[in-house]
Amino acid sequence: MSLRRFLAVALVACSPLAAEIRSLTILHTNDVHAHLMPNDNHLGGFAYLASAIRHERANCTDCILLNAGDLVQGTPVSTIYHGLPVYEIANLFGYDAATLGNHEFDYGWQRIQDFVKTAKFSVVSANVVNDQGAFLAGKPYVIKPVGGIRVAVIGVLLGDLAGNLATPEKVGPWHVLPVVETVRKCAAELRDKSDLIVVLGHLHDAEADAILQQVPDVSVAIVGHAHRAYAKLHTFDGRIGALVTSYGVELGRLDLQVDMTAHKLKSAEWKIIPVDSNKLTPDPRVARDVAHWEAKVSKLVDVPIGEAKRRLEKKDLQALVERAMREQTGSDFAWVNLGNIRDVVPVGRVLARAIWNILPFDNAVVIGKFKGSQLPLKVREGHAIDPDREYSLATTDFTAANQSTPENLRTTGLKFPHDAGLLRDVLLDWFRKKKVIE
């Protein structure tokens, strides 16, 4: 062999192998919250979301569909039937994997086990465990082969679930492990078993960003919980996070180029697809199942209760709900967490359904009497309070049980011994009396 040929062969042998690049599309939803029907702006609805998913799947070679928590809780079908019909209908979307959100706990931890059994897709959650280390969802992660890529999906739930977002009796014997530490442990287990690690997290923004910053084995975080889309991908040293708007009004599409050699992303393109019921043809099978379940609740919720002269947004409704609580119970003050207000009131005729959507939780109104000096600062703001006078305060049983948290009253030790019934019923009765809301 000539010297020139020998050097050429040696150079090829010593050169690094060319990277193998493969394509992967991640379609994703989060915080769908059982919104089976389109909203008053004609966005969302399960039959239309299914149609959007089908259209995007037809235009990608290798796809995976993920949901980042909170499939349930938000509309009458879910409230009355404790979420299970929502999982049954969601099976028709063809999810590959989903994780638990905090609202999966609203019907108690036992119901989550029913959700997992009903789901025809993998439900993964790595950091919700009992004292024996068993996983509430059954498994912490799953590996899905997609177009020759071993995609590992780790489920994870926000760290402040207990004592802030769910009451102790709803959580039961389960507790939440630290988010970043749990993901780091799972990623280490998956490093040699997968080509791409995805975290499917129902998380606060800071938790999702911390994962991308501190766990380099994770390439993608598909996120839920915030209810509003990221303005753009969250990017940290080539690792990315994505989040779309809640209630099924958007579908996320993440088109990736995966470096199979380095087990990293080479590129990523993200777009948000509106689920517009004016432009999409509803999926017939999903539409049939939605109609079946909606028919079961229609006689109760599709009943006129009044009229709204304008569209009432969530912040308007916080003050309106507090007013209703005061007037219906005769209390001096009322306070409701803005997080309790879950929807809007459309302009025009108001159906009972709107109130069920606004207040899907079965929270009771509770009342206590306190000296002015004992009232929480959030209640006292804007009022001349006599520190020695006794005042009555109405709030929800959830707030009373979690009164110390920043989202609630930021106080401790207040007792609310009187129960005035479900907050939803209080508001329904108030609307009927008022008839017209300006």
How many independent structural domains?
2
How many helices? 14
Total beta-strand segments: 21
In the CATH hierarchy, what is the class of the largest domain? Alpha Beta
Going across the biggest sheet, name each strand in turn.
4-3-2-1-13-14
Measured by DSSP, the beta-strand proportion falls in: 25-35%
Give your account of this protein's structure.
With 438 residues, the protein is of the alpha/beta class. The chain folds into 2 domains: 17-292, Purple Acid Phosphatase, chain A, domain 2 (4-Layer Sandwich), CATH 3.60.21; 303-437, 5'-nucleotidase,  domain 2, CATH 3.90.780.10. It contains 14 helices and 21 strands. The chain has helices spanning 3-14, 46-57, 76-81, 84-90, 109-118, 168-171, 179-190, 205-214, 284-301, 314-329, 352-358, 377-380, 397-401, 423-434; strands at residues 21-29, 63-67, 97-99, 122-124, 128-129, 141-146, 149-157, 175-176, 196-202, 220-224, 234-236, 239-242, 250-259, 264-274, 304-308, 333-334, 348-351, 364-371, 390-396, 418-422, 436-437. The strands form 5 sheets. The chain has a 6-stranded mixed beta sheet with strand order 4-3-2-1-13-14, with helices on one face. Strands 6-7-9-10-12-11 form a 6-stranded mixed beta sheet, with helices on one face. Helix 2 (46-57) packs antiparallel against helix 9 (284-301) and helix 7 (179-190) crosses helix 8. The chain starts with a helix and ends with a strand. Residues 6-15 have low confidence and may be disordered.
